[in-house]
Fold this sequence. Notes:
This protein is of the alpha/beta class. It has 16 helices and 14 strands. Among the domains are: 116-194, no CATH class; 200-314, Rossmann fold, CATH 3.40.50.
Amino acid sequence: MQIKNSTALKERVLDLWKTYLLSVSAQDILLGEVSDHLYVGDVDFRSLAARGEKAPVSSYVDIGFSDDIGEMAYELAQGGEDMRPYSELSLFMKEEEIGDALYDYLSSHITMHKASDILDNPYYRQVKVRGKTREGHITLTVNDYLPGELIQTWHEGFQKEDPFAYGKAAFFDSRVVFPVLLENGGVWMSVVLSEIESMKEPLEKAKGKVITYGLGLGYYTFMASEKEDVESVTVVELNPHMIALFKKELLPQFPHKEKVHIVEGNALTYIMAQEDGAFDYGFSDFWGGLSDGLPLYLSFAKGCARFRHTAHDYWIENTFIDYYFRPAVMIFLMEKVLGRKERPLDQGKKASGILRKFISFLEKEPFTLEKEDDIYHLLDTKTLVRVVRKFAASCL
């Protein structure tokens, strides 16, 4: 990579660093409360909505996040070593300004939804889960969200005005019941808002002969089979209990079940033997989320790199880019443009090792960084997806 340093380039990188520190700090609060199942009850969100779209969200942030915002602003403003690098915000902003910025950030990354936003989905209208059914260590049942319970939603990717967002959240104005799969008693997957939103684009791309890796509750399989331009949907699933449960309880409710073909097998083994062009479109979804997904995503991207006639996409690929690789680019820029070695997010030993390799890989990529637009081009999701897939194919 060729970097033509200038005062303007240094100023832009420093400004992005400040934006990055604030964004991560705010999202740490946001996703922390999602993990803690924040519940703001006894509020009539429907009545608040009559006063304008922002009214229920403002009330939600006031009630649910005031203490978090105050505590985070205080800790960042103190500039303590244990809060580095995020406490560097104290070099740019006073405590009150940090608090206001955190409040504004949270307010713009939380939305309120009506129950119909999810219940009007074709899968919900057609596929019903009644009671509790078990096959081996897999259980099919239902769960619910209460009105005012905070949930994570899908972040669609890079925006120049909000470059480092990786988490958004929402709450419903009324109770929502949704299907869920439990593995050994813990939630493996559920058809919730983030699931529906994250599969919108891969479903739009599905056509002809489709193959998907990972069965779960069959949401992707159902929605793809509903498309007129989809001839068949082949599903590769490793877990025989999942397959048995799906065939018994869910598949009979599919209007186009004749299109669905299930193969019991290991996705990584299957992809290495798959003939290029045997399918028109492929979609991988056999990891649970960020914590277990990064190595699987990269391994599968390496396996798919040889395809020229089968387009292939990956569940939550945008999120891997948002959470892991764009911050790695920021660390790279801080060192190469400002001469400062910074540590990335604490993402675990395995992920940190992968990201160190990725940063070294970036140095050899044929990019020229000279002006502001060059930086934003490098940070853009489309660019990073292309670079990360190349990295997976050649370096792992």
